[in-house]
Amino acid sequence: MNRLPSWLKQDIPDVLVWETAGNISRLGVNTVCQQALCPNINACFGRKQAAFMILGKYCTRHCRFCNISGDASRLFQEPSPDEPERIARAVRLLELKYAVITSVTRDDLEDGGALQFIRVIESIRSADKTVKVEVLIPDFQGNIEALRKVVNCGPFVLAHNLETIERLYSVIRPQAHYRRSLRLLAKAKELGGRLITKSSIMLGFGETKEEVMVALRDLRSSGCDIVTLGQYLAPSSRHYPVKEFILPEQFREYSALGLGLGFKRVLSGPKARSSYDAEELSLPARQAGKQEVLSYA
Predict the structure, then answer these.
(1) Comparing 67-76, 107-116, 186-195, 257-266, which segment has the lowest mean pLDDT?
(2) Which DSSP helix (H) or strand (E) runs through 114?
(3) What pTM does this model have?
(4) Which of 2, 35, 44, 154 could make an SS bond with 49 (beta carbons 3.0 to 4.6 A apart)?
(5) Which letter does DSSP use for residue 130 in this model?
C-alpha cells in the first residue's frame, strides 16, 4: 500500500514551521517529530510545539516500524552532560508551558537512561517551575528501580507505548515484551498514585478489531488513563509494510469503545500520535477546549 488516502495529507509548512525547526537545530536538540517522520510535524512546529528526544539519536533496538536508527557503532556512549540544559533552553525559546520528553531505547545503560530523564525534568523546572512535563519512557528492561526514580521526580504524565497487539510483538518488536510493558504501566500507577499514565497503539499492521479491543482492555487493567490510536505509516520500503489504512469512522468507533472501557481520555484518528495535543489531552474532559481531542479524522 503505497498511495496515501486523502485523510492522511499533511499540512504545508509555513514560516513558523521553518522558524521552529531552525531554533531546534541551533540548540542541537533532537525531536521525535523529525526522527520518526511524524505526520503532524508541520501542524505542531507551526504552533511552536515539539516532543524532545533525549539520549542521542541511536537506539539499541530494531523495531520494524520505527525510523530511528539502530546503528550499533554509535552506541555505548554516555548521555551528553549538557543535554538537559539544551532541552531547557529549547523549552524557554519555544515558550512551552507543557514539555514532552521521550528518548531512544538505551539497553546499554544500566538504568536504561532513567537518570537522564530526571536531569532533564530538573533542568526544565529550575528554569521555570510552572512548566508541566510529560515523559514518554522506554521499558527500562523491566527495571523497577529505574522506573521508581523517574516517577519520584514527579512528571505530570508518564507515558509508555504498547505500540501494537500482542500477536505481532515477535514480528514488529522482537526485543520488547507486551506483558512487560503492561507491568511497567501498572507499576507506574502503583508507585505514582495520582500520576496520569498514558499509552499508544498504532493500527494498520494487520491486527483485527478483536485484538485491538483485547489490547485496550489490557491497558485499562493496567490502570492506564489515556490512550491514543493512530494509523501506522511505513517510513520506507525497508520497514514493515502497511497492511491496511483504517477508515476514519473506525477510529471514531475505537474512541467510543475506549471511553466505554473507562479511559479518561482517548485520542483516536488517522494522524493521532502519542505526543500529539499532549497538553490538552492531559486535561480532564470538562476542561478540554475542543472535542477532537477525543476523536478526530
Answers:
(1) 67-76
(2) helix 114-127
(3) 0.89
(4) 44
(5) T
Nearest Cα neighbor of 29 from 90, 81, 74 is 90
Please report, in angstroms and rounded to a whole number, the separation of the first and last CA atoms in the chain: 20
The neighbour count for residue 271, using CB atoms within 10 Å, is 20
Q: Which domains does the chain have, with CATH numbers?
A: 6-293 (3.20.20.70)
Looking at residue 71, its pLDDT comes to 58
| Cα three-residue angle 102-4-16, rounded to 5 degrees | 50
Q: 209-221 vs 178-192: helix axis angle to the nearest 10?
A: 30
Grid cell at residue 28:
542541537
Q: Assess whether pLDDT exceeds 70 at residue 292.
A: no
H or E element in which residue 87 lies: helix 83-93
Contact 42, 10 (CB under 8 A): yes
* pLDDT band at 290; cut points 50, 70, 90: very low
